[in-house]
């Protein structure tokens, strides 16, 4: 959080929000289910889509691995004293960032092997819900939300 402008005091940014939702809610086309209760499924309330809690789906598994690899590379960058090594590690972590950022968008592309409007809508629904709830909590602590985007919001205090 940093003071950005005279009237904007903080920007709350949620690191890897959509990716975290994919992993936490096990969102993948093969985990989407028509039956099953809330004890066995995560339910995207806005749409009613259900995703099995177990086993972990293909997309959440791959997403988790890519996020972990990126975190590992960023940690290695901090520890390195070699500028050339830092640059190589940075290129690698940026490539992983680009790769993982395509997952959500591809859910919306009919030519994608794992095309799924349900997965896409569930991710954005949980993201909206998370942002709205966090903004309410921030309001209870004296912050006034001004504007929200995909994975964060601006506030005054």
Provide tags for this entry.
157 residues, alpha+beta, Palm domain of DNA polymerase, three-stranded antiparallel sheet, 4 helices, 6 strands, flat
Number of domains: 1
What is the number of helical segments per DSSP (H or I, 4+ residues)?
A: 4
Number of DSSP-assigned strands: 6
User: Span between N and C termini?
Assistant: 12 Å
Q: Based on the structure given, which CATH architecture is correct?
A: Alpha-Beta Complex
Structural class from helices and strands? alpha+beta
Structural commentary:
The chain has 157 residues and is α+β, with helices and mostly antiparallel strands. The protein has a single domain (10-156), classed as Alpha-Beta Complex (Palm domain of DNA polymerase), CATH 3.90.1600.10. The chain is 50% helix and 15% strand. A 3-stranded antiparallel beta sheet has the order 1-6-5, with helices on one face. The longest helix has 25 residues, at 83-107. The radius of gyration is 18 Å and the shape is flat.
Brief overview:
With 157 residues, the protein is α+β, with helices and mostly antiparallel strands.
Write the layout of secondary structure elements.
Elements: E1 10-13, H1 17-24, E2 32-33, E3 41-44, E4 49-52, H2 58-79, H3 83-107, H4 117-140, E5 144-148, E6 152-156
Antiparallel strand pairs: 1-6, 2-4, 3-4, 5-6
Helix pairs in contact: 1-2, 1-4, 2-3
